[in-house]
């Protein structure tokens, strides 16, 4: 941010003219001309070709530095579609026209470094503070070769001060379980983490949605001040702004049915509509007046449609005449802008990554690990769950006897425990990417990091606590149950537990990468776990399986853990017999009867490693496919 930039009054309602903002050689304005966008429908015409629907038709306009340009219109008018077209966030459909930055076409490779996009859903990590959220964005987006870590921290503090977040900087973002910042502070934090990357252009989708009037005004007042201070272009969509918010807007783009009905200052819009016979009542909010003009109601469809077409045609003629509309001079403000510090004067950003892979990984792992450690309800619940399982299972199977009844009891606990490990581990992990996909796509669209660094950081941040809780439970259980007192068998028990838990983590991430919603993840995960349970080697004897089912046994981590545990416990175990009961005197006979010989403990360990690797890699491929940012640049 320019160190010598200032605004005379941070609470001032700001309006500026074009002459107020110095225009650098590059990035002075964003222009769009005759932008048309259509999508193919599933239905087909008589010739068998897909029918199409036009969402935008010949839309033109311009946004200059320091301006707040608002796209307005009724629902379905094309507001968000136009915003996505200008920001380059469209991945499908047919797009034509031109969008230029200071008269030059956009460069697909560097465009994402020049723009920032604040979505309507301002999802962030709930257990990270405001300052940490902004600082992580700075560390990920700003080049390490140009900015030292201390400089990124200083930029973070500058943005916090500019958006008046100083009082909330050490407060968690919060969610339904964790108390956090207010709605206005949350929205300003979402904007701040985009501004800290020093973009040329800031796009905002419904930034006032869900906020009260005071918070909404405060958010846009801060954005306006920041736009003037840095000479940044700001384009936003907004539905029904208040009079106070309208006073902050430099220009409005009024859309109806995907076409422009007016582009220019609010005062000029009122003058233009009045010349057509539509005068805004004295006490009516102009924004409400605009929406009334542009909305097509079902009950008055023909009348409203005729009015909208009249407005579209009137603006088309006005636009073609190229006659400037005169409007009253607007008040200026006292400010100083350093041309050397303007983002538009900076060199063309590099098309590559801001950090090397390892730096990305360290930053992402630090953030993910903090989020895990600070999730107090989850941490407490995990410890309580572990303690309850140890107490219930440990005392239910306390010091098992080495007799014939002990065979069933041992087989029962040695099958129950790997089942528990899979179910307990996989359930929370499958929700990871569906919950964080919005964050990931937003950060990936900004070119913040590679998929691989993000994926591995998430895997490690979830695998470490999963294995930790597994070890915390299986150490006391081994001695409470009374399994064989052998050092190598005890450590082999720990190893197989860790490997099976890791396999469950890998399976969870594979499912999480391949589904879009939490509901879908929660439906798929138990189904897979039940299949692995069924073919785990205890319920159905593996030797009796047909070839069409046997392959399921080969991919069951429960089966390999169960086989390993049974071999560790029953090999070398002597069992007592009563005179009046069938007798299986040795553990080796038990293994033979249940068809659990063959693969050794170490072979099972190797297969668990192979399954984990396979599922981790599959998860990465799926995540890479589903997290590719949409980008269509004219």
Automatic annotation (TrEMBL):
Occurrences of domain ABC transporter (ranges): 41-282
Compartment(s): Membrane
Species name: Spizellomyces punctatus (strain DAOM BR117)
Transmembrane annotation, as ranges: 378-400, 412-435, 455-478, 490-511, 517-535, 547-565, 599-623
This protein's UniProt keywords: ATP-binding, Membrane, Nucleotide-binding, Transmembrane, Transmembrane helix, Transport
UniProt xrefs under InterPro entries: AAA+_ATPase, ABC2_TM, ABC_transporter-like_ATP-bd, ABCG_dom, ABCG_transporters, P-loop_NTPase
Protein name per Swiss-Prot or TrEMBL: ABC transporter domain-containing protein
Keyword Nucleotide-binding in annotation: yes
UniProt GO molecular function: ABC-type transporter activity; ATP binding; ATP hydrolysis activity
């Amino acid at each position: 941010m320019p160190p010598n930039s200032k605004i005379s009054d941070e609470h001032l309602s700001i309006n500026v003219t074009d002459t107020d903002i110095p225009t650098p050689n590059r990035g002075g304005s964003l222009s769009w001309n005759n932008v048309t966008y259509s999508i193919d429908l599933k239905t087909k015409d008589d010739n068998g070709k897909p029918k199409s629907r036009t969402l935008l038709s010949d839309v033109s306009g311009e946004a200059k530095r320091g301006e707040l340009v608002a796209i307005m219109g009724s629902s379905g008018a094309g507001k968000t579609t136009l915003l996505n077209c200008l920001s380059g966030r469209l991945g499908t459909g047919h797009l034509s026209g031109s969008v230029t930055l200071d008269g030059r076409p956009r460069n697909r490779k560097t465009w994402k470094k020049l723009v920032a996009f604040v979505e309507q859903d301002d999802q962030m990590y709930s257990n990270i503070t405001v300052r940490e959220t902004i600082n992580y964005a700075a560390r990920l987006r700003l080049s390490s070769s140009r900015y030292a870590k201390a400089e990124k921290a200083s930029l973070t503090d500058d943005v916090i001060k500019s958006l008046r977040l100083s009082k909330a900087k050490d407060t968690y973002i919060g969610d339904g379980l964790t108390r956090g910042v207010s709605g206005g502070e949350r929205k300003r934090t979402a904007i701040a983490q985009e501004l800290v990357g020093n973009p040329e252009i800031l796009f905002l989708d419904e930034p006032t949605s869900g906020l009260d009037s005071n918070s909404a005004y405060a958010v846009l007042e801060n954005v306006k001040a920041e736009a003037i201070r840095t000479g940044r272009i700001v384009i936003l969509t907004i539905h029904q702004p208040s009079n106070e918010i309208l006073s902050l807007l430099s220009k409005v783009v009024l859309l109806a049915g995907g076409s422009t009905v007016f582009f220019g200052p609010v005062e000029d819009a009122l003058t233009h509509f009045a010349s057509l016979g539509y005068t805004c009542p004295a006490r009516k909010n102009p924004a409400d007046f605009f929406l009334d003009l542009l909305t097509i109601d079902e009950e008055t469809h023909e009348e409203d449609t005729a009015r909208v077409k009249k407005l579209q045609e009137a603006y088309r003629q006005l636009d073609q005449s190229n006659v400037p509309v005169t409007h009253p001079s607007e008040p200026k403000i006292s400010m100083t802008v350093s041309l050397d510090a303007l983002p538009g004067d900076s060199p063309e950003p590099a098309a590559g990554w801001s950090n090397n892979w390892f730096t990305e990984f360290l930053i992402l792992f630090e953030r993910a690990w903090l989020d895990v450690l600070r999730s107090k309800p989850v941490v407490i619940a995990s410890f309580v769950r572990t303690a309850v399982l140890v107490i219930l299972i440990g005392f239910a199977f306390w010091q098992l006897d080495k007799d014939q009844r002990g065979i069933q009891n041992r087989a029962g606990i040695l099958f129950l425990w790997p089942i528990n490990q899979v179910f307990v581990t996989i359930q929370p992990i499958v929700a990871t990417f569906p919950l964080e996909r919005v964050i990931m796509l937003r950060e990936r669209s900004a070119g913040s990091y590679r998929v691989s660094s993000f994926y591995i950081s998430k895997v490690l941040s979830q695998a470490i606590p999963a294995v930790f809780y597994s070890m915390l439970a299986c150490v006391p259980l081994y001695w409470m149950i009374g399994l064989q007192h052998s050092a190598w068998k005890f450590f082999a028990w720990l190893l197989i537990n860790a490997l099976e838990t890791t396999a469950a983590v890998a399976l969870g991430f594979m499912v999480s990468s391949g589904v879009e919603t939490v509901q879908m993840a929660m439906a798929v995960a138990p189904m897979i776990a039940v299949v692995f349970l069924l073919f785990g080697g205890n319920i159905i004897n593996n030797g009796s399986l047909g070839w069409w089912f046997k392959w399921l046994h080969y991919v069951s981590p429960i089966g390999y853990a169960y086989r390993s545990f049974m071999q560790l416990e029953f090999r070398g175990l002597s069992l007592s017999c009563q005179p009046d009961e069938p007798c299986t005197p040795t553990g080796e006979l038990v293994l033979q009867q249940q068809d659990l010989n063959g693969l050794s403990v170490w072979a099972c360990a190797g297969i668990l490693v192979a399954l984990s690797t396979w599922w981790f890699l599959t998860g990465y491929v799926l995540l890479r496919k589903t997290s590719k940012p949409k980008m269509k640049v004219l």
